[in-house]
Amino acid sequence: xxxxxxxxxxxxxxxxxxxxxxxxxxxxxxxxxxxxxxxxxxxxxxxxxxxxxxxxxxxxxxxxxxxxxxxxxxxxxxxxxxxxxxxxxxxxxxxxxxxxxxxxxxxxxxxxxxxxxxxxxxxxxxxxxxxxxxxxxxxxxxxxxxxxxxxxxxxxxxxxxxxxxxxxxxxxxxxxxxxxxxxxxxxxxxxxxxxxxxxxxxxxxxxxxxxxxxxxxxxxxxxxxxxxxxxxxxxxxxxxxxxxxxxxxxxxxxxxxxxxxxxxxxxxxxxxxxxx
Length: 276
Known about the structure:
By secondary structure, this protein is α/β, with parallel strands linked by helices. The protein has helices at residues 32-47, 69-76, 86-108, 125-131, 159-162, 169-178, 184-189, 200-215, 219-232, 237-250, 256-267; strands at residues 8-13, 16-21, 53-58, 114-118, 121-123, 135-139, 143-145, 182-183, 195-197. A hairpin with a 2-residue loop joins strand 1 (8-13) and strand 2 (16-21). The two termini are 20 Å apart.
């Protein structure tokens, strides 16, 4: 696997990859470099067909405290002094926002399941990142916040689009309008996270265990399940059923993994899937 970064670390252990947010000295605040490198990491993961599940975690004291405002302001400059019109400056800003959106969306588009192992702060852009994951686990000291209204901006990198598919409309409205912090117990109660653990080591261990359960299943079936779930978000039930049937006809019924599952059942042994 070819990937290197100053702000992210990618570890692969067998069929499970861990993508570490690796700016512990900044509590994993998301800099331009991190935003640029996340899609590269996800592309490297997608290209490795041996990987069956991904865990995203943060080094140091926090999962992520959100956007690195110093990085953001340090690279913007005064566009008027560069001779840019208001229109050109606006287009430049839109391009920067789209790049950030695409970075977070690269996590959502990962072909294999992605599990967020969250500890301590998960604020602003951190929320954008974890809502792009399939499953979220957290430590008991985790703090969640859609913080943008408190700093005078509208969350525009994915939380407002993805959070409504995770929690109820009223919970989205409360979090997005107030910018308030909620703790892990509230996050679990409203369904933002699946489970809560004692500390960072425990939540990471739990995420790896869950990833292992996923990785033990037929890879094509897991990938297909994620694909159908994602596509169904923008389809009617009938459209989704048709796509589901076509996927079964083209992929599932022709896979070696299905044959292996049938043989394993008859022989009363665990299946050994190859993803073919």
